[in-house]
Amino acid sequence: MIVADAFFYLFATVCVGAGLMVISARNPVHAVLFLILAFVNSAGLFILLGAEFLALILIVVYVGAVAVLFLFVVMMLDVDFAELRAGFIAYLPVGALIGIVLLIELILVLGAWVITPEVAAHVTTPTPPPAEVSNTQALGQVLYTKYVYFFEAAGIVLLIAMIGAIVLTLHHKEGVKRQNIADQVARRPEDAIEVRHVEPGQGL
Amino acid sequence: MKEAATTSPFLTYILALPEILLVVGAMILLMVGAFRGERSANAISWAAVVLLLLAAVFVLLLPAKGKVLFDGAFIVDSFGRFMKVLTLIGSAAAIVMSFDYMRRARLEKFEYPILILLATAGMMMMISANDLIALYLGLEVQSLALYVIAAFRTDSVRSSEAGLKYFVLGALSSGMLLYGCSLIYGFTGTTGFPGIAAAATLGQTNLGLIFGLVFFLAGLAFKVSAVPFHMWTPDVYEGAPTPVTAFFAAAPKVAAMAMFLRAVLSAFPEITPQWQQIVVFISIASMILGAFAAIGQTDIKRLMAYSSIGHMGFALVGLAAGNAAGAQAVIIYLTIYLVMNLGVFACILSMRRSDGMVEDIDELAGLSRNNPMMAFLLAMLLFSLAGIPPLAGFFAKFYVFLAAINAGLYTLAVIGVLSSVVGAYYYLRIVKIMYFDEPAEEFEAMPGKLQAILGVSGALVTLYFFYPAPLVSAASAAAKSLF
Questions:
Q1: Can you tell me the ipTM of this complex?
Q2: Does A97 contact B at CB distance below 8 Å?
Q3: Of A116, A166, A171, which is closest to B203 when you measure between CB atoms?
């Protein structure tokens, strides 16, 4: 178990450090790269928890798709991050104060953390038991049966996000020439080419 | 909870038919709009109104005997039935009110009614949520659609600013709500409301659970725009296109308050004193801020924003009572609030001159001479909002204060009555401007659809005292199903 503990502290430390670098790195490209580092270490933590499916999804979806897309956007848009961060130092004391107050409150609460035995008995057991099936299979067994309502609702959320992105950013400009493939294919030589007989020395 | 979920799959889908109808209908209309383009915007808007009313009919036809679907995530009962019908009517009226504005502003996009349909489906999911995950997902379906329609006027900086502000603050509040949910889940071991209610009674009060409850209530308070989480309301109301503001002030408020009611009453009934003090505080703060901050406003949309903050405070007075009478009072309050707000916004939407919409309160000067009927009905609605007898708004306030007094919350009731008196000042100021100031330039004739909504709303508000029995008994039946 000592090896697992060592890996936990390794992943956790690197993850927190990378998270700090995401918000403090001067170069936005570096910030995104640190974000990827944070994701990979979180995936490591998931593996330690025995949730290998979530770990791989985190790498495939977040590192492979989301972070890379982020990187493209950051590189293509000329956003002045120094200007965006100009107010950061000014608001830092207030933000830090609120953060510290919340942290102290949390520590007080967690210090007094008592889970009564009755509550522990009430905790829903994972279905099916993790020893019998792999967690990919376990997710598959409940996702479309027990949790179908949540699954469908999440689908509607994504649909709305898609409609919203199109409504707010797509503008149809008048008078822009577009390619119409059907028109191009339907066009016959007679419509396009006119054969004229030109008399020598006269022109059209 | 496994035993509760024995409804057969077929029956499950029958009972969830109104929601399924709205979502599937929205998707079909989306396809129609995508293929037929902006020309179909008008037809799609009418189809959306028909769908909403059809869903309301289905809601009324379904049995309301407290059925639990989808493994305890979704509950169909008479409280949900009442609130859903109210929400559906509010959304349908909001679409009907938007036609003329959208045509004049060249905003006729087919996505607008579709987003309202999806937002309404989200509201119905919120009202029926019997589980923290279902509550959160319903809330996100609703909120995401609302963020988009707040920024719907892409050529206006203020509309985009409203949408962005709403989005950022909404995401923050969702974060708090989720943090609260995760703590509640961590300390009770379940996300279902009945399970939480069973665990929340055990032993001495659990500090971690209370901590989660505070964050959870903070997230809910943001959605009903109660103080101290109200900051977004005036800016969003002012910046969003006026029909969108009319929509925001009506149906989403009703749905969010219904969700608030069900969440605290059915998940934390045994620890009422713990949430009661929080609700009393946000209720007092909302009533006072709504009364004082509205006094200095010159823009009528901002004024209505502060007014809605105050009214949410009054509705929370009923919730603070924490019993069936209180819940009944909240239901009656929300019904009357919805009717009054739709009528007032029908008037605001007809404040139009040849050079465009006006939003300044002084533009209403002398309306009694230019358009006596509109001035009279608006004056009645404003008297009702102020809570002056014998109009409906008086009875709404009467029921919530009565519930508070019966529950022993005398301070709350006294502060409520006092802030109601202060709030009356700014409503009466508008009446004074309409009746006693020199007439300003005349408005354009009021479109027929707005006339109809103003007429119905004015009639319901002024004639309510003749026949209050149906609303009171329906609200009583709805409130009983929560206990």
A1: 0.90
A2: no
A3: A116
